[in-house]
Amino acid sequence: MLSTFGAGAVAGALLAGSLKHVPHLGGVVLSIAFGMGVGLAVIGLSPNVYLTLAAGGAIGLGAGFINVRVIAWLQGRTPEALRGRVMSLVLLGAVGLQPIGLGVAGAIIDLGAVTLMFAVAGAIVAAATVAGVLAGVPSQMTDGAPA
Q1: Cα separations (Å) of 99 from 8, 70, 92, 93?
Q2: Does the chain have fewer CB atoms within 10 Å around its N or its C terminus?
Q3: What span, in angstroms and rounded, lies between the C-alpha atoms of 75 and 73?
């Protein structure tokens, strides 16, 4: 599954990097993120390895695309003097907190609640995307020049 995730992430990054402009970037990003949340739930409920591999690849595709487009969008709108500080906070959330998340996931798996863990993780991601829509992210996150 990690290999299909990785292959999907490479494909998503290449796709995101090859596009000159993404119309309605905020809506696209939130739609992809919602799909990734659904994919997490699918992994937990999957009856076979093929569906799990497909979901892992799709999640990777979305992650690769979002990482390229959102980081570029964020850096393009952050004043140069603050860019290092902003990116350090982003990486703290993305990478620095990962060991904590892995520890919690490992404890949940040890309790035998794998399906529940993936379902709840997917629901959290889906709920966050709905919150983003309600907060107006699609209209605020455009792929044009910063205002």
Answers
A1: 23, 23, 11, 11
A2: C
A3: 6
Instruction: Locate 76 and state its tokens.
Output: 């393009």
* Residue in the block written with tokens 């949340």: 37
* Residue 57 to residues 1, 16, 119, 140, Cα–Cα distance (Å): 8, 16, 18, 29
Written as six digits, the tokens of 86 are 């902003």
pLDDT tens across the length of the chain (147 residues): 899 999 999 999 999 999 999 999 999 999 999 999 999 999 999 999 999 999 999 999 999 999 999 999 999 999 999 999 999 999 999 899 999 999 999 999 999 999 999 999 999 999 999 999 999 999 999 876 565
C-alpha 37: how far from chain center: 8
DSSP type of residue 48? S
Burial class of residue 129 in the structure, from the number of CB atoms within 10 Å of its CB (0-12 exposed, 13-18 middle, 19+ buried): buried
